[in-house]
Write a structure and sequence with these properties.
single chain; 129 residues; mainly alpha; Recoverin, domain 1; two-stranded antiparallel sheet; 3% strand; globular
């Protein structure tokens, strides 16, 4: 999956390492976050496939919802240890560490913007989420 992500959504399938159970969980998160944030499925799909042309605040909060459901963010705080734990087996430990070096210190104007920027950085740095 691509983060994207998010992830995640988040989220495009790109790896055989992702189980059907993981995919089902991501589908549930996606449906919940789409409904919660009031965005369209097309907006969610655009985000997870790397289209960042829609800076709608609702899309940014969708990214936050996905990041929180995956445990990558809690109350606007990024959790690199959780990202490493969950993405390491999918992306590879070294690749995940390298991505965290590039993406780990991102701070946006609020928690939704921070999550959106992380989502974008993960995708651009080839996270499988």
């Amino acid at each position: 999956m691509k983060f994207l992500i998010v992830v995640i959504a988040c989220l495009a399938i790109a790896s055989a390492k992702i189980t059907e159970e993981m995919m089902e969980t991501l589908r549930e998160y996606t449906a919940q976050c789409v409904e919660q944030e009031g965005i369209t499925k097309e907006q969610a799909f655009a985000l997870r496939t790397g289209n960042y042309d829609d800076p709608d605040p609702k899309v940014k909060c969708y990214a936050n919802c996905m990041m929180e459901k995956m445990g990558f963010m809690v109350d606007g705080q990024f959790k690199p240890d959780v990202v490493q734990e969950k993405l390491g087996p999918v992306d590879g430990v070294d690749a995940t560490k390298a991505m965290l070096v590039k993406c780990g210190s991102i701070k946006g104007s609020d928690k939704c913007d921070t999550a959106y920027q992380h989502f974008q950085c993960f995708h651009n740095n080839h996270s499988e989420l």
